[in-house]
Every structure is written in C-alpha cells, then in structure tokens.
Design goal:
about 20% helix; globular; two-stranded antiparallel ribbon; alpha/beta; 8 helices; 17 strands; Rossmann fold
Length: about 400
C-alpha cells in the first residue's frame, strides 16, 4: 500500500462561519471536467501508518500526477450517448425554480490551505468480483490534524459517466471540506467498464462506508456522523446511497456488522430518472442519451445490452433514487446549473420534489448560467468558476454542519 501525506493551513472568516485561507487557487484543465486544483506536497511512507509531513507546497498548476493521464485534482465529464461519448445539448429548456434557491455564483473563489491535513492514499476497502474478475477498490482519505478527537465523515464520489471513477479527482474542493474539520474519503467504485451496474456501484459505496466505520478509531472518525457527497454520476450514487438507507439488498461484502446508513446527501448535478436524463434538451441530444446500449443503458441493464433507458421500465424505475425514498432516507441538498447541457436540470428538481412529497428534508440550489460542473474541455475555462466559489461551497459546508452534529 502506497501512502503519501499532504498538508493544508490557517483560517480566515467568510460568509457562513470560518473559512480557511492560504495558497493561491489555480485552475487544472483536463479533457473532461476541471475544477480549481488545490494540493500540497508531502512525503511518502509505507507499512500501513502515516505521520504528518512538515513539508508544504503551493497549489499545483495542473501538472500530471505520477502514473496518471490527467491533471491532478481534475474530475472528468459524464459521457453519455453512443459508446459513452459526450452528448452536449444545444438547447436547454428552462425549468421551474419555484421550490429552489437561485444563486448567482460569481463571488470569490475558495482558498486552499497548506497545512493541517494528513492524507493517506491507496487504501483497499473492498475486493469484489464482477464477471469472474476481482477488483481491488481503493479510497484516499484526508484527516484534519488541527484539532483532536473524533471528526465527522464525508464520503466523496467523483463523476465519470458511469464508465470511470477516478478517486483522485476534485482535490481542491475535497481539501476545502476537510479543512473545515471533516474527514473526507474519496472512493473508487465499479463502473460499466468493469461490467458493473448501478447495483454494484451502490454496494461499493455502502461497503466503503462500512469499512470506514469499522476503522473509525484508526482515522479519527465519528462513526455516527456520515454524509455522502457526489458530482454527476457520483451525485447519482450519493442520492441512491442516501435514499436506500436501511435497504439490506445493497449491503454485500465485508464488515456487515457495521451500518451503511448516512445522515446527509450532497448531490451536485446528478441524474436520477434515467428515462428523463435528456428531458430538457434538443432532439439530437435526446437521441444520443437514449441510444440503445449506451453507458446509461449498461448502467441499468448490464454489459452487452441492446436496450435503451428511453422507456421507464421496471428496471429503469428501480434505478431511480426517488423509488427508494422511505422514512429512513437521509436529508438532501441538491445543486444544478441552469445551463447544464449534459444532465437535464430537471433531474435534480424531480428528485427534490419527490423527497419533499414524502417528508424528507430537501433543499435545492440552481446556479444561474452554470454548466455541468465545468466544460473546460470545450475551451470555456470560465465554466469552472461557479462550482468552486465560497458561496457554492459554503452552502455545502453549511448543510454538513447542520446535519452532521
């Protein structure tokens, strides 16, 4: 197991409580989604233990991590359409915001810190078998060291269009949340490239939660206070994880004496009802998103399928988090950009409405003019900014503070 340590520094006050300040924020661009990259240097150790590093460094400028093919900390876009290719809508129908809070995400960007966090990489939390092939699933964990005692846990799930799950993505925002005093674990999960379906991936997330609860003392975790936070396909998995609190069918694998329930869900621009994935879009985008055998179809029906998610079959309905809502479902906060041309903005609205109809605490924010997390790969480098403002991230931190006591 390879382990590396990174650190992060001092705080300053901002809009909704303490926000930490430090190194200058820089932008990392990849061939998919790119978000503000924030990191620090460190030393490596082996043998299953880690100790805080005295070394610090400024945030990276988008250099590639060793052995990786994309810039450090940069998440990738959600592919859809034929063969998982990205289907970008040309027109987006305006959706109802009457039950949502509309924000203008144009304020100051988050600032990364340079000390106070110890990070351990490449922790194997589960080794499931899919189609006869064993997968060692990894997570990276950031533990704040500026305070002692047990800390609330946030599970982060990256996007990747159901075809990839790079746990190294979005380092800047993960570090920012960790810097507010949360243990943050970024989790790899199985995708369609592994021959997996949503059932396998939800089981993976729940397995990671059980693993971390079983190892709570090792990582200074308060096992009673756990939230799940995801973006795009990761937002979908966060929603499924929180909606299915108490459903034992998704609890398979190790550490089954531990609970997989969560106390809060942060869903950023995640799909929900896959039969309505492109409901707000033009004909060409709908055609691509509902193509038979594409990544969305494989996510529901499995590898090699010739089916489409265009029809709300019983299988598609079962893959919709709204069909799993119960009295045990966790509170939600949902975010969507009004100009998202990869996942219809109405996806989070429909889920938000379903949650409220069943008495679940749900808040939804619409970011005026924001796209799908970022569309830097199209040349629009400014699209990164709405998702890493102090205001947007402040709403996430405020929600975590409210629901993780």
């Amino acid at each position: 197991m390879d382990m590396h340590e990174e650190s992060a520094t001092p705080r300053t006050k901002a809009r909704a409580g303490w926000r930490r300040g430090g190194a200058v924020v820089t932008v990392a661009v990849t061939a998919g989604l790119a978000l503000v990259a924030c990191s620090s240097g460190g030393t490596s150790s082996a043998g299953g233990t880690s100790s805080p590093s005295a070394k610090t460094a400024a945030c990276p400028t988008g250099t590639t991590a060793a052995g990786a093919g994309t810039p450090t900390g940069a998440p990738t876009a959600m592919p859809s359409g034929n063969a998982g290719g990205i289907a970008v809508a040309k027109t987006i129908k305006k959706s109802d915001t009457s039950t949502s809070t509309v924000i203008e995400p144009t304020g100051a960007q988050i600032r990364c810190a340079t000390s106070g966090i110890t990070t351990t990489h490449d922790i194997t939390y589960s080794s499931p078998t899919t189609d006869g092939r064993k997968s060692d699933l990894k997570l990276d964990i950031q533990v704040p060291t500026s305070t002692s005692g047990k800390k609330r846990l946030v599970i982060y799930l990256t996007g990747g269009g159901f075809v990839m799950a790079d746990r190294t993505a979005n380092l800047s925002q993960r570090t920012y949340v960790a810097d507010q005093g949360y243990v943050v674990a970024s989790v790899q999960y199985r995708t369609t490239k592994d021959g997996a379906t949503y059932k396998d991936a939800v089981a993976d997330v729940k397995s990671a939660i059980r693993y971390l609860r079983a190892n709570a003392d090792k990582y200074s975790i308060d096992a009673d206070q756990v939230a799940v936070w995801g973006q795009s396909a990761g937002g979908y998995l966060a929603a499924m994880t929180g909606a299915t609190n108490g459903e034992k069918s998704f609890d398979v694998g190790d550490n089954l004496t531990q609970s997989s329930e969560v106390q809060g869900v942060v869903d950023e621009f995640g799909p929900a009802d896959l039969s309505e994935l492109a409901a707000d879009y033009d004909t060409a985008a709908r055609k691509a998103n509902y193509a038979a055998g594409n990544s969305a179809a494989q996510w529901v029906y499995g590898p090699g399928t010739k089916k489409s998610v265009a029809d709300r079959t019983s299988e598609v309905a079962a893959a919709d988090p709204s069909t799993h809502i119960s009295s045990r479902t966790a509170p939600f906060v949902l975010f969507h950009g009004s100009a998202d041309n990869l996942v219809s903005p109405s996806e989070t609205l429909t889920l938000h409405t379903a949650l409220r109809a069943k008495g679940i605490d749900s808040t939804r924010y619409v970011l005026t003019g924001a796209g799908h997390g970022d569309l830097s790969f199209t040349g629009d480098t400014s699209a990164v900014l709405p998702w890493s403002t102090q205001e947007t991230m402040g709403h996430i931190v405020d929600f975590l503070g409210q629901h993780l006591k």
